Structure formats: structure tokens, C-alpha cells
Amino acid sequence: MGDGGNGRTVLYAVTVATSAIVLLRGQLATLREHGWDVALVSSPDERLPAFAADQGVRLFPVPMTRGLLSLADLRAIVAAVRILRSVRPAVVNASTPKAALVFGVAGVLARVPVRVYSLWGLRLEGERRGSLRFRVLWLAERVTAMAATTVLCASGSLRDRAIGLGLTTPARSRVLGRGSTNGVDLERFRPPGPGEADGVRRDLGFPPGELVVGFVGRLVADKGVGALLDAFTEVAAEAPTRLLLVGDVDDADPLPPDVLARVRADPRIVLTGVVDPARYYPAMDVFVLPSRREGLPNVALEAAATGVPVVTTRATGCPDAVVEDVTGLLVDVDDADGLAEALRTLRADPDLRARMGAAGRAFVAEHFAEALVWERVEGCYRDLLASSPALATR
User: Fold this and answer.
1) What does the buried/exposed string (b/e) look like for 321-347 if buried means 16 or more CB atoms within 10 Å of the residue's CB?
2) For the sheet containing 91-95, what is the strand order?
3) DSSP 126
4) Which of 4, 150, 169, 330 could bond to 90 as cystine, CB 3.0-4.6 Å?
5) Closest by Cα among 181, 138, 183, 175 to 158
6) Mean pLDDT throughout 155-168?
């Protein structure tokens, strides 16, 4: 049995294992070190037992789908209620859309005192407003937010967007510090040592002296890959330039065939496939994330921590990862011309790139270092428990 009665048990819920492994590593172990009893729920995955053991947490597999609402969600809610009544956590922190919905509703039914919805992004921003999919996703987000006692937003602009869409209220939502999901590992993502960047470029087949524009993430339309290709083509026609795409295509959300064909046909473009991005950031002169929507883009923070200037858009979540004109540049969504101009500005001024890279590293260290984020999360739990009327009556 958990010890929810004295407020030292927290249960995390995510839909799939990758979310836990990538976005909760270290946070769970740190809470354990601070005396919390930590449980983790996710859909079954062969990687999870080792991850849970490494983090020192209890593991509860619950099958959950990633699609829209279905009867399978009712079965997941029933299973979630059983787990919550067994573990008796004082805090539930549920993130990713389906797990947050399932454990938000289950948390109400099981009378969990503190129910946190960690909002990492809004899928509905990728849908046409007024469409059936938009309305279904809006309803799911609204129910999830209403079931939570607190909506913990990954960034300030994401919080503003959620409030503007009527999903939550200022009183029920908050951002910790400047935001973040799990912080940035400043040892893993660091400026390169002497010769390190040149070595990576040689391995990639990039000639010395050419500007290297980098991107990290899934190659999907929502990441603005089409605008990136248009801007790159324009800039590369003026001076030798390379495009390094660290990631792979996503069969579940494929790029338009003509865009993908351009990626594969251009010899100036390297597509790495799924790799550890930490090795490739040092090879970049400029990092570009032309996304149409984010929660808070971890890849932009990782690039900045590596000392690379960032160019991104004014889409939800993206501006929170940049100090405009200090650590990077902002352009409008789907503005290939604006993106090309930003690349020209940085190409023409190596000293500006160096200053922005150094400022980016300092910015991430001050606001997004892992230890700072984990400390804020634990402090948030203590604050929420101290002010919970439901816990006071238990």
C-alpha cells in the first residue's frame, strides 16, 4: 500500500514508455532520493522494467491507446481506478493526452487529493479549427483539465494558449520557473572540445568552411520541414551550405511525397535516421526549428546548451526557448523567406553566432538545468499538498 495519507506517494502516468524514458529520467530517481514513494504507469513495454528499476520506482502497466476516444479508454479508466485505490497516492502527475485523460478521470473517481495534468503540448493546434477532430480533441483536453486540480504547463505561451482556448483558467494553471518538462543535462549537451566539431563534420562528409544548418526531430509537416527546405534551397544557392536533419521520417504522420523526395534527392542534405542528437549538435553552425506548434521544444534548449544559436518560430512554445536577438532569432510560422533571411544574418556574422551560442548556454544553465527543474517539481508537490483541502480531511 502507498502512503497517500501522509502525502509522500506520487504516481506518474504516461501513455507510452518512450515518454517516461525520455522525459522523466532522473526526475523520478530524484524524488525517490527526497523521500518520495514513486510509482509509474504506462502502456506495457519491454523497456520499462529496466527503466523502473534504474529509477527505483514501482511499475504498473496499463494498456492505453494513442488514438481518439474509444471503448478501450473505459477499460483503461477502470484499471486506473483499481491502481489508484491500491497505491493511494497523494499526488497523481499525468501527462501525454491519453494517460492524462484516463488518470485524470480515474483520479477524481478514486479521490486523489492532488491531480496534476502536465500539459506538454496541444495536439489540437495541428487540426483545422472547427473540424470534427479539433472538437473531439478540445473536448478531451477540456475534460482532462477540469479533472485536474492543477494544470502544469511546459511553457508560458502554452499556458496562455490553453487559457485562450478555454481549456483551463489562470487560477488552475501554472508554469514552474521559465518552464520545461524535465530540464536539460548540461554535461551531455555542452559546447564541443577542440577539434570535436570538425571530426563530426568530417564523418558526415561536410567540407570545411561550409555553413551547416541543423534540425533535430521527427520529419513531419507540423515541424515546418517544408519551409525549412525552401529556405535552405534559397540560401544554399547563394553560398555553400549543408542541411543536417537529425531524425527520421514518421510513417504515422508522413511528409508530403514531394517534400520527402526533395530531402532524399539533394546531396547537400544528410538525414541521419534515429540517433543520439548530442553527438550532432556540435557540427551545426545554426540550429533551426521551424515548428508550427510545441509545448516547449527540448531540442532548441539542447542546441542552445551546446552553444549553437537557435532560429525558431513564434508558434506556441517556441519563443519560450529563445531570448530573441540574444540567444537566437524568431520568424513567423511557415515563413520560408523570413527563415532564409535569418540564416543569411547568421551566416554573414560568425561573431554573432558565437555570442548567441554563449548566451544560449548561459540561458539554459540559469533556467533549465535538470537539477533546477527537479527541485521546482518537488517544491510544487509540497506546495500543492500543503494547500489541498482534500488532503486535510483524509
Assistant:
1) bbbeeebbbbbebebbebbbbbbbebb
2) 58-61, 37-42, 9-13, 91-95, 114-119, 150-153, 173-174
3) G
4) 4
5) 175
6) 98
Q: Tens digits of per-residue pLDDT, 47-79?
A: 999 999 999 999 999 999 887 777 889 999 999
CB atoms within 10 A of CB 251: 6
Q: pLDDT-derived band of residue 391, with 50, 70 and 90 as boundaries?
A: low
292: left (phi over 0), alpha (psi -120 to 50) or beta: alpha
The C-alpha cell at 32 is: 525517490
Question: What would the grid cell of residue 61 be?
Answer: 502497466
CATH number for the segment(s) 4-183+370-392:
3.40.50.2000
> Residues 180-191: what's their mean pLDDT?
96
Smallest CA-to-CA distance from 291 within 209, 226, 366 is with 226
Query: Tens of pLDDT along 81-132?
Result: 999 999 999 999 999 999 999 999 999 999 999 999 999 999 999 898 999 9
Closest by CA position to 328, among listed 295, 359, 283: 359
* Rg for the chain, CA atoms, rounded: 22
The span from the CA of 245 to the CA of 267, in Å, is 13
Q: Where in the chain is the domain with CATH 3.40.50.2000?
A: 4-183+370-392, 196-367
Class in CATH terms, 196-367: alpha beta
- CA dihedral 299→190→368→373, nearest 10 degrees, is 110
d(CA 385, CA 113): 8
Average pLDDT over residues 221-233: 95
